[in-house]
Amino acid sequence: MQISDTRPKQSPRILLTDAALMQSLKEAIAQKLVPDVVKIDQQGIYPQDFLREIGEIGAYGQGVSVEYGGTGRGVLSAIKAIEMVSEACLSTGFMAWCHNACSWYLQNTDNPFLREQILPKVATGQLLAGTGLSNPMKHFAGIEKIKITATPCDGGYILNGTLPWVSNIGDQHLFGVSAQIEGTDDYLMAIAQGGMQGLELRQDVHFIALEGTNTFRCLFRNAFISHDWILAAPCDRYVEYIKPGFILMQVGMGLGLTQNCIDLMRRVDKTKQHVNQYLDDRPDEMEMELEALRLKSYRLAEAIGHGRELVSKEVLREVIQARATASELSLRASQSLMLHAGAIAYVHGSVYDRRLRESYFVAMVTPALKHLRKVLATMPK
Ligand SMILES: Cc1cc2nc3c(=O)[nH]c(=O)nc-3n(C[C@H](O)[C@H](O)[C@H](O)COP(=O)(O)OP(=O)(O)OC[C@H]3O[C@@H](n4cnc5c(N)ncnc54)[C@H](O)[C@@H]3O)c2cc1C
Question: Which candidate, 101, 87, 274, 256, places its Cα nearest to that of 189?
């Protein structure tokens, strides 16, 4: 991948106010995403143009400082953007999260090359990006072994190992990775380039949902990564900086999906309320819980701010709890939607069918609900 060393000009659209950003995003979703959601879900079409377009509008620049091409508004506006996209399509909402997560890694690094040359292009969507951090997050939580090792060499490290799945990537994309530094108990975090030598991207399974997310198995075989692309090594403290924002931004997926399930339940109720009223998890009840989660996450986003500092244990616990609640609400809302809609929801390809399949992903993607509950159960009070 050729990375020119000239800083891209900041898009004038990225300087929109928060309200104007949301309005532009709303229009882009209605015009350019909604017509394609069925193709994304069923044919696995990757919405690359839309992902670039919302980058230009500012959907990835919120957690990024103004000097590096962002708006400096922090994680809160990023969550709102992910929420809005997820309301229409979880595949694309997830990719908006993947990209924002990588942007967040770059915002939190001390590496001047990554901050000055790469971050502005990622913050504006000129370079698309993902994150391969499920395995290290599970590893650090004592759930599985680390899958990548980094052997120090002249000018950088040699990476070896396989990541089962990384989304929103391709030959021209970037993504965050973590590896254990060989012969030590230390780990590093780095930015990998999809087209780098020694990295094979393989697509050999089909998913029940999220097919349009350009998700690949990543095989690193003696892939060289230079010091320029290292986010942090060792990365213990750096991981603590990025963790709360990484987890909290995922709540946006649950907020958006649950909101859409509630709206669809209300639509069905126009003709079926007389019988649907006997069901559990009715739209008004779900809306109250959703609003409580929304307010809590927005408040936590303000506590996290712009990264590059540690949050308190209490804030981290609340972030983890909010992420778990987002999973639980998504599952309950999509199940209740199925029951509200009845047989029409059982038709293959219906919106109800899609929302049900998508909701499981909110609870399965790392940190999955079981992972979050493990952390909450074992976290010192
Ligand atoms: C559509 C999709 C997109 C994803 N995108 C990303 C991403 O962008 N970045 C990222 O880091 N992670 C990504 N993941 C991984 C995800 O975050 C979880 O780590 C993963 O779903 C497993 O989590 P778990 O808690 O269920 O793990 P576990 O409870 O450990 O279960 C995983 C099970 O799946 C098996 N398994 C793992 N990989 C494979 C494989 N390739 N083929 C067959 N079986 C396998 C394991 O052996 C194990 O039995 C994605 C997963 C999916 C399904």
Answer: 101
CA-nearest residue for atom 35, ligand 1, is 164
| Whole-number Å distance between alpha carbons of 357 and 261 | 12
Question: How much is the pLDDT for 363?
Answer: 98
Per residue in 146-164, pLDDT tens?
A: 999 999 999 999 999 999 9
What are the φ and ψ backbone dihedral angles of 48, each rounded to 5 degrees? -60, -45
Distance of CA 124 from the midpoint of ligand 1 (Å): 29
Which structural domains are found in the chain, ordered by start?
A: 12-128 (1.10.540.10), 134-232 (2.40.110.10), 236-378 (1.20.140.10)
Task: Please tell me the distance between residue 163's alpha carbon and the centre of ligand 1 in angstroms.
Answer: 9
pTM over 0.85: yes
Its sign, for the CA torsion 287, 293, 297, 300, is positive
Residue by residue, DSSP assigns 121-175 as HHHTTSS-EEE--HHHHHHHTTSS---EEEEEETTEEEEEEEEEEE-S--TT-EE
Backbone angles phi, psi at 37, to 5 degrees: -60, -35
- Residue to probe by mutation, ligand 1, list 89, 90, 99, 134, most atoms within 8 Å of CB: 134
Residue nearest to atom 14 of ligand 1 (CA): 165
Ligand 1 pocket check for 98: Cβ under 6 Å: yes
Contact 142, 173 (CB under 8 A): no
Residue to probe by mutation, ligand 1, list 168, 366, 370, 375, most atoms within 8 Å of CB: 366
Cβ-count burial of 295 within 10 angstroms (0-12 exposed, 13-18 middle, 19+ buried)?
exposed
Whose alpha carbon is nearest atom 33 of ligand 1?
164
CB of 208 within 6 A of ligand 1: the answer is no
pLDDT value of residue 1 = 59
Question: What is the DSSP-derived secondary structure letter of residue 309?
Answer: S
Look at residue 4 and tell me whether its pLDDT is greater than 70.
no
